[in-house]
Specification:
This protein is of the alpha/beta class and 330 residues long. The protein has a single domain, classed as Ureohydrolase domain (Arginase, Chain A, 3-Layer(aba) Sandwich), CATH 3.40.800.10. It has ten helices and nine strands. It has a nine-stranded parallel β-sheet, sandwiched between helices. The two termini are 15 Å apart.
Length: 330
Amino acid sequence: MTLTALPLTPEAPMAGDSAIRRNPLHGTWPENTYAGVLSFMRRNYTRDLTGADLVVSGIPLDLATTFRPGARLGPASVRAASVQLSELKPFPWGFDPFETLAVVDAGDCWFDAHNPLTIPEAIRQHARRILASGARMLTLGGDHYITYPLLQAHAEKWGVPLSLIHFDAHCDTWPDDSPDSLNHGTMFYKAVKEGLIDPARSVQIGIRTWNDDFMGMQVIDAPTVHRLGTVAVLQQVLDIVGDRPTYLTFDIDCLDPAHAPGTGTPVAGGLSSAQALEIVRGMTPVHLVGMDVVEVSPPFDQSDITALAAAHIAADLICVLAAQKGAVRP
């Protein structure tokens, strides 16, 4: 069932290429899933943020990876995987989130990859411009380093410290006292040290690598998720973050490599797509001020498994925000 009864004919004035032809920000047009201008879920592809509640953008960076590269191609692959999600009402929500929530795709953050030390400030400025519009951000990575400058910009906007909900195989709190390093395994060490996040009111889900010092972060590792189940885990997460302003970051390698082979540092024993989506869908009580989905590496993907998982997670995060704004399941 499509979201609209408009006829699918070449003459239909409101069908096809809605990413560049749609006048209002709300609503959904008929599209051919295999053709047309790509944006995330066919939202307006524009730098005009007027009236937007949420801005999707990409940060195509993989200079901070420690193993396999390719995450710079992640934003494009997640956008391409999202096309089918724009055609049907999302499951299990049963509503069109874009009737309630004005969402645009602002394209990708531009930075000079040949001058790496300029990249963090380019990302911060990208985020500051979007946040200054009054919209929230849903960012597609790119490697996980991007969350660090994004957190800096969000902390400026919302006040510090934020709570963090962090889905990952890795804790990313390994020591790093270099102010200029680009490392996708040390961002939250720096974030805690700088007071950007409150570790006591933050939670990491799906962890399955060891660190002698988790920096006070509350850890619900992957075996615990498997043992307790998603309902109990979700309640723990809600209890930890409460009603505090919260940033949510989802590293796709939180999923087991069977569910997300296309990532830079895969680790066996992770969450299934079903487990992760069930937890994400329960985030409606959380005061989400920013979100990202990172570490999709298309060169290592199979049949777009990883990109599809990332697109579904991002789509569910949009539905969470729509539900918070008043969208109701039938």
